[in-house]
Amino acid sequence: MKTIAIISQKGGAGKTTLSVHLATAAALAGHNAAIIDLDPQGTAASWGDRREAETPEVVSGQAARLSVLIEAAEANEADFLILDTAPNADQTALRAAQIADVVLIPCRAATFDLEAIQATLTLGQLAQKPAFVVLNAIPPRSGIGREAAEGLIAQGAKVAPVMLSQRAAFTHGVIDGRTAQEFEPDGKAAEEIGSLYAWLCGIVGMPTCGRVRKAA
User: Fold this and answer.
1) Closest alpha carbon to 137 in 104, 184, 170
2) Fewer CB within 10 A of the terminal residue: the chain, N end or C end?
3) What is the mean pLDDT of the chain?
């Protein structure tokens, strides 16, 4: 089972959007995918409640039960597990990062967001796990994302090669428990998620396509 922790000290960075889209990409590709929602706001869990499809499974949990929840995911033969954390660089986020195979840090290309990312990057370093910034909500056809990536790399951060643009499909798709891949399969948002998912599979050493054996 490959485990991905999605952490960010800054609220509104797009953690849950990234969580549900990557988990759904894995599910659509045939993997047993699941999300553990560790955020008390329960945004991912609410999305899961609205979703008609059985996968990915979304479980709302507390940090104290994280080990038990991960054991349950393994018992259910999950291949791909997302840990969606609260917007805090705290012990829960650190624990999730330590458990994960890789850490993803969503970040908007705005000054306040970029300034606030250092605490999250430090947390990734403390966990001693590979950590990558995923630039999110980038205005299409602008150089802002490239400039932000160059600035982060200059600070020593690793940046995912795929950025997510500010597209309506990301917002509209989740309203009824779907994602951009399902709302507009041939759209640009779905293409970006597909590329990010394929890159992530390469990072964690997982085939992009799987064969579901049992519901996660």
Assistant:
1) 170
2) N
3) 92
